[in-house]
């Protein structure tokens, strides 16, 4: 199994291009199920989660044509199966995003329940309740969600927890429903907005995406379109934190600062100088980072997907910080691995108290999930000596060409088999 070997100590310098956003691409690929015509997507990242999603869509009967320039043509003229099997869903929870589109277009869908996950229990009850409010008949049988509806009906749906994929699933389903659907307490994440832009290009009638109330007026059919997937704000944030930790100077191209306000604010608080242009972000750090406390919450607050990376920064920062995770109940698994590198972290409930140390020391560590593995890469970049990160397949789910990009910035990083 692949590992990453990283020799710490290099200051990151230079420019790299940011890839398309995984968490925008995953729902947008599923939007291709809503029309018989071709949906062309540009800026598709080359990631394990994207190939898993394309395998699932191919299994259902979608024609998938990838070109080598990060574009894909999707056509769901006829679907062979209205089912997402356990074997595919268990490897990627975002597979639940086929439920809304298949049900809306074909009147029936069977999708395996995703089951447990390393970062928390992650139920899908709000996806199910929302579809039931739109008139779907849903039975859970043999570990599968079996949903039926001759035609979904518009409804007012209040979600008591902000859910990103829940909002996306219901928004897609509502595009083909009879009448208007209002999603209240909807997720405001930029990925939800990007999906809405794609659906609107396909002929959907959507207002309010990006706010907490989204109104979707159903139409009879959607048509083909071309959509460019937004830049990955979490990949962007990860490289910015890496540059800040190594006291480097980097420019990230093809990305947008306005999706990253909370993260940029915290980096400035840590002492970074940040310059923003319309499609690039530059960061320069000339001092040891100051410790910064963070608390995760739905967008536009600080993203849970950046929590582990800021924990890594705080490990070597000047001062003491508190890192509070409010979205997932078990998203501190990087703590034990960071402690193996010499970090001083105490966890109590959903808060970690991090006392910055002068240096970390290389060791063998294990990645447990995608963002945890990214945080270990960051810690390794500043650790003395070599760090070997095992189970690196987690990182390939969400970071395109990670060792090439870090090497381009001057890091000493290699993949070993
Ligand atoms: N929740 C419920 N019921 C539901 C759905 C969610 O209680 O029906 C709870 C969850 O248990 C959690 C909270 O609501 O406590 C928020 O979860 P959400 O549904 O927003 O998470 P998600 O849609 O499954 C997406 C991203 C995650 C990211 C979260 C939070 C995708 C494909 N995944 O997950 O990304 O952490 O939103 O921002 O968009 C990652 O990229 O590493 C990743 C895990």
For the residues shown, what is the average pLDDT?
96
The largest pleated sheet is described as:
4 strands, mixed
SS strand fraction: 25-35%
| Strand element count | 24
Question: Could you say which overall geometry the principal axes of the C-alpha atoms support?
Answer: elongated
Bound molecules: uridine-diphosphate-2(N-acetylglucosaminyl) butyric acid
Please list the strands of the largest sheet in the order they lie side by side.
22-23-1-24
How far apart, in Å, are the first and last alpha carbons?
A: 6 Å
Number of distinct helices: 14
Category from helices, strands and their pairing: alpha/beta
Radius of gyration: 21 Å
Unreliable stretches covering 5 or more consecutive residues: none
Roughly what percent helix? 25-40%
């Amino acid at each position: 199994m692949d590992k990453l070997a990283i020799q710490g100590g290099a200051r990151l310098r230079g420019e790299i291009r940011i890839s398309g956003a995984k968490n925008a691409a995953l729902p947008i690929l599923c939007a291709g199920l809503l029309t018989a015509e071709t949906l062309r997507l540009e800026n598709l990242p080359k990631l394990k989660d994207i190939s898993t999603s394309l395998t699932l869509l191919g299994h259902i009967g979608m024609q998938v044509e990838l070109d080598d320039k990060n574009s894909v043509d999707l056509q769901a003229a006829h679907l062979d199966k209205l089912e997402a099997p356990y074997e595919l869903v268990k490897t990627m929870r975002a597979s639940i995003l086929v439920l809304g589109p298949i049900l809306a277009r074909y009147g029936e869908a069977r999708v395996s329940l995703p089951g447990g996950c390393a970062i928390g229990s992650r139920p899908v009850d709000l996806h199910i309740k929302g579809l039931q409010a739109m008139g779907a008949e849903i039975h859970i049988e043999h570990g599968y969600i079996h949903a039926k509806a001759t035609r979904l009906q518009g409804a007012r749906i209040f979600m008591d927890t902000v859910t990103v994929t829940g909002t996306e699933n219901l928004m897609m389903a509502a595009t083909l429903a009879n009448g208007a659907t209002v999603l209240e307490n909807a997720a405001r994440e930029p990925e939800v907005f990007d999906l809405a832009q794609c659906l609107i290009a396909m002929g959907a009638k959507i207002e309010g995406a990006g706010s907490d109330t989204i109104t979707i007026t159903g139409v009879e059919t959607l048509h083909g379109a071309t959509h460019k997937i937004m830049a990955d704000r979490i990949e962007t944030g990860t490289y910015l934190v890496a540059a800040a930790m190594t006291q480097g100077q980097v420019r990230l191209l093809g990305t947008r600062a306005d999706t990253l306000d909370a993260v940029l604010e915290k980096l400035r608080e840590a002492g970074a100088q940040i310059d923003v242009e319309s499609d690039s972000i530059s960061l320069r750090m000339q001092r040891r980072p100051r410790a910064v406390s963070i608390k995760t919450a739905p967008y536009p607050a600080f993203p849970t997907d950046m929590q582990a990376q800021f924990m890594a920064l705080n490990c070597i920062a000047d001062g003491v910080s508190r890192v509070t995770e409010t979205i997932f109940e078990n998203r501190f698994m990087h703590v034990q691995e960071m402690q193996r590198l010499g970090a001083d972290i105490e966890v109590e409930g959903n808060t970690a108290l991090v006392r910055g140390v002068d240096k970390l020391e290389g060791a063998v560590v294990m990645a447990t999930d995608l963002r945890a593995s990214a945080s270990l890469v960051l810690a390794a970049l500043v650790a003395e000596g070599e760090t070997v990160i095992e189970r690196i397949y987690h990182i390939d789910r969400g970071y395109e060409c990670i060792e090439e990009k870090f090497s381009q910035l001057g890091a000493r990083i290699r993949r070993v088999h």
